[in-house]
Specification:
Length: about 180
Amino acid sequence: MAKVVTVFGISGVGKSWMISRYAALSNAAHIQASQLMRNARAALVGQAVTSEDLRRGPVLDNQSLLTDAFAKVLATEVRPIIFDGHCLVDVGDQSIEIPEEVIRQLQPSGIVLVYAPADEIVRRRESDTSRDRPSRDAEALAIQQARCVDICAGYSKQLGLDFVQVRAGNEYEFSQVVGQMLQK
């Protein structure tokens, strides 16, 4: 079975970019939670589903779609897996924490949180017109990031896993941390 490292970070922090760069250089599988859920939901409803549809829908119900789809990936993937997901989903005027049991079912070897200064995330979100994200100022994003740290630390404690924070854009540190977690 493939080793898994879960990578979290708030929307717009740059985690998918870092994961895709790492995956391309290391022959790891970059598995995106949103893509797994979109595919599973689309199969159920018979039409295309966007990330925004997932956010507007039953966020916690989508997690069962995610864990079922990920179990299929685990059964067939032989390469190391870098799981690209969220521990906190930003929905309108609230944020929904992903339960620890969902993370447990991913069977990770470690947890990484990608972070950046909140004002950088605001700029990235403003320049990315391909996604329809809830509008947040730097203060709100800083609060969300702090909450993500707490959530990931909780996962780490509950699951007995290493938890490391890596600054967005620091490819060297990201590579080192993920590589060490995949060796466990």
